[in-house]
Design goal:
393 residues, alpha/beta, formyl-coa transferase, domain 3, six-stranded parallel β-sheet, three-stranded antiparallel β-sheet, 17 helices, transferase
């Protein structure tokens, strides 16, 4: 999307998060056209910039999730730094904050302090376990939230523990971005923004709504191979081929399953949805698929509607012509001036633009402009920069 375009053009956002879910949230808003300002330490030690893996000295997290934003380095531990933040916050529409519950309030930059000055401002927080409840102060990462919510139990195997997968971060970020957009819409009607919370634990819980409904309404504790979509049925499972590669079979509907059986020569005996015969049917399917390589089976299935897919690696997925044609890979400009490939925003507003080059900000890039728009005179910006309160090169 061209700079200054998009449905959120003209909306100004302060990103008060240093890595992870908050950065993802504000990246989504930036991709929708918002003018996002990344608040970060004045010494350039922001985790997103420095955390490995690095591309020519710059963190991949920063390159991917901070593209399209601008940089506002400010020392929030200093009273003068908090004054600067409050002045800037008085000019924005949304603040996204990813601190532990209570930290922003102790710094004097919480929702209450900011909305007292600007009621139209929307304040979106991203606590780990939420601002209330026995776990509200506990530390955690995506893997912890996925474990506690029950996500990992859905992928448990008989002989191996489930591998970590990122679920909580992405869903919490998506919900937070939705809350921010909702706040902007409400403020446009009522001049009053929203205070919203999207915890990472709630994000993990959100991924299990169907399983939770079964647990609550039917008394069934859903886990691996205990429900239709968690591997209970042989027609919805993953199988190993003769060369060790994997095929994902998701032929839930009868027409897909019957065609799959016809192409593989399997006689299921009418057991597709017979819960009492799934182990035998799964063993039959596994035995048949193990007779040929993955490539050979894919040739057999061809363009048939059987809902069978190869289990690809990340790199293999990126090489799919389908991904390239839909501009699933884009371009961004590294702070050193070079252009590198990067995953693109999956939400397309209009035709995908494969030629767009997003920019990842250098430390303090554009800070003087923002500070000036918040009412700070050039001499004051110079003084704050020299004192280490802000970094505005």
């Amino acid at each position: 999307m061209a700079e200054g375009a998009g449905p959120l053009a003209g909306v100004r956002v302060l990103d008060l998060s240093w890595i992870g879910v908050g950065c993802i949230t504000t990246w989504l808003l930036a991709e929708l056209g918002a003018d996002v300002w990344k608040v970060e330490p004045v010494d350039g030690t922001d985790n997103a910039r420095t955390m490995e893996p690095l591309v020519r000295g710059v963190g991949v997290n920063h390159l991917v999730f901070d593209r399209g934003k601008r940089s506002l380095p400010v020392n929030l531990r200093l009273p003068a730094g908090r004054d600067v933040f409050l002045a800037v916050a008085g000019t924005v529409d949304v603040v996204v904050e990813g601190m532990r519950p209570g930290v922003a309030d102790r710094l004097g930059i919480g929702a209450g302090a900011l909305r007292e000055r600007r009621p139209a401002l929307s304040y979106v927080t991203l606590p780990g376990y939420g601002s209330g409840g026995p776990l509200s102060g506990a530390a955690g990462h995506d893997l912890n939230y996925a474990a506690m919510a029950g996500v990992l139990s859905m992928a448990r195997q008989e002989t191996t523990a489930p591998a970590p997968v990122q679920v909580a971060d992405w869903l919490a970020a998506t919900l937070a971005a939705l809350a921010a957009v909702s706040g902007v819409l409400q403020a446009g009607r009522t001049r009053d923004g929203v205070v919203a919370e999207s915890s990472l634990f709630d994000g993990a819980m959100f991924s299990l709504v169907v399983a939770q409904a079964q647990a609550l309404m039917l008394g069934v504790d859903v886990g691996a191979r205990t429900s239709m979509l968690s591997g209970e049925l042989a027609c919805y499972s993953v199988y190993r081929c003769a060369d060790g590669e994997l095929l994902a079979v998701a032929a839930l509907e009868e027409r897909f399953w019957q065609r799959f059986c016809a192409l593989t020569g399997i006689d299921d005996g009418g057991a597709q949805h017979d819960r009492g015969r799934q182990d035998l049917l799964r063993a039959t399917v596994a035995e048949v698929l193990a007779t040929r390589s993955r490539a050979e089976w894919l040739a057999v299935f061809g363009d048939e509607d059987v809902c069978v897919s190869p289990v690809l690696t990340v790199a293999e997925g990126l090489r799919l012509p389908h991904v390239r044609e839909r501009a699933g890979v884009g371009w961004l400009r590294h702070p050193d001036g070079s252009v590198v490939e990067a995953p693109a925003m999956p939400l397309h507003l209009g035709p995908p633009d494969a030629t767009r080059v997003a920019r990842t900000p250098a430390l303090g890039e554009g800070a003087r402009e923002l500070l000036g728009s918040a009412g700070l005179a050039t001499e004051e910006i110079e003084r704050l920069h020299a004192a280490g309160v802000v970094h505005a090169p």
